[in-house]
Amino acid sequence: xxxxxxxxxxxxxxxxxxxxxxxxxxxxxxxxxxxxxxxxxxxxxxxxxxxxxxxxxxxxxxxxxxxxxxxxxxxxxxxxxxxxxxxxxxxxxxxxxxxxxxxxxxxxxxxxxxxxxxxxxxxxxxxxxxxxxxxxxxxxxxxxxxxxx
Length: 149
Hints:
The chain contains 7 helices and 5 strands; from the N terminus they run αββααβαβαβαα. It has helices at residues 2-22, 47-50, 57-65, 84-93, 110-115, 126-138, 140-147, and strands spanning 29-33, 39-44, 75-80, 97-102, 119-122. Helix 5 links the parallel strand 4 and strand 5 (119-122). Helix 6 (126-138) packs across helix 7 (140-147). It starts with a helix and ends with a helix.
């Protein structure tokens, strides 16, 4: 039952990733959900579009959610395993769960998050994986820049 809900939540992140790609950016999307299941915010990687290296998808979703009294019980849903920067955001603000579309193309900080009590749900979504594989093949230089290679 939970995986069905997480899959539905992932669709919002995938829509964001596709929007970012259409804008000429990196196809990573995210959404933040409240403990009650309501969508608090969503966004996509805007590093290229904004010329801002800190505007990752999780950061965009977090900012779109606005100030919350507490992030306990919230879920960050992302199309790709979160990098160390975004993993730090999750830890800093006490986000309880991270739902990941795929981690085959990039294995970020989700093991570290799990070691520190964050629930990790890895969906291994074929659409998320294909989206990133195609992007990495077509724009390897931009991908290398994004992951700090």
